[in-house]
């Protein structure tokens, strides 16, 4: 393998994501657990305090500031994912694709599914950032699709 190919392989395995702090209380994304058994996604924290209103009321869904902007290599982007502990409390993310070319502030769209307000403090971990390799597919229109065992069975098709 040539040195160029080796360096390319290493950079896509461990891409460098540049982070610009836009707010004094912003924190860089970080993994709670690293190494062989490390986390799949890095924690994102709130740069400002917020209170999510109860479900069904104005303010139950808000974009919460992380106070950071990211620069991905053209080969990568990210997905914003729920934190399982918050999801168990009824706090979930609604949007979450960050394209390689986006340079604006990362804001996390959170929704409160509970009957009570939910307070977020500065520095609280509010979501996870999963780095993904960008693959640009080609879409081909066809008349028929090859049959598969699952077929058109969708939601609830596994019986659970």
Describe the 3D structure.
The protein is mostly beta strands and 160 residues long. It has one domain: Deoxyuridine triphosphatase (dUTPase) (Deoxyuridine 5'-Triphosphate Nucleotidohydrolase, Chain A, Distorted Sandwich). 10% of the residues lie in helices and 33% in strands. It is built from two helices and ten strands, in the order αβββββαβββββ. The strands form three sheets. Strands 1-4-8-6 form a four-stranded antiparallel β-sheet. The longest helix has 11 residues, at 3-13. It is globular, with a radius of gyration of 19 Å. The termini are far apart. 19% of the residues are buried.
Q: Concise description?
A:
By secondary structure, the chain is mainly beta.
What share of residues are in beta strands? 25-35%
Average predicted local confidence, pLDDT:
91
- CATH architecture name: Distorted Sandwich
Order of helices and strands: HEEEEEHEEEEE
- Strand arrangement across the biggest beta sheet: 1-4-8-6
Which residue ranges are poorly predicted, with pLDDT under 50 across at least 5 consecutive positions? none
Overall shape: it is globular
CATH class: Mainly Beta
Largest sheet entry = 4 strands, antiparallel
Radius of gyration using CA atoms only: 19 Å
**Number of helical regions:** 2
The number of domains:
1
Q: How far apart are the termini?
A: 48 Å
Report the strand count: 10
- Oligomer designation: single chain
Question: Which secondary-structure class do the elements indicate?
Answer: mainly beta
* Helical amount: 10-25%
Q: What is the assigned CATH homologous superfamily?
A: Deoxyuridine triphosphatase (dUTPase)
């Amino acid at each position: 393998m040539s040195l160029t190919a080796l360096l390319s392989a290493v950079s896509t395995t461990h891409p460098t994501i540049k982070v610009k702090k836009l707010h004094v209380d912003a924190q860089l994304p970080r993994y709670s657990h690293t190494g062989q058994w490390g986390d799949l996604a890095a924690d994102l924290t709130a740069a400002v305090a917020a209170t999510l209103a109860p479900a069904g009321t104005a303010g139950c869904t808000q974009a919460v500031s992380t106070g950071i902007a990211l620069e991905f290599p053209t080969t990568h982007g990210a997905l914003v994912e729920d934190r399982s502990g918050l999801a168990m409390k009824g706090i979930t993310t609604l949007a979450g694709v960050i394209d390689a070319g986006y340079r604006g502030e990362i804001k996390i769209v959170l929704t409160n599914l509970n009957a009570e307000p939910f307070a977020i403090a500065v520095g609280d971990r509010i979501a996870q950032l999963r780095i993904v390799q960008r693959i640009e597919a080609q879409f081909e229109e066809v008349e028929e699709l090859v049959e598969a065992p699952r077929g058109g069975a969708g939601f609830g098709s596994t019986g659970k």
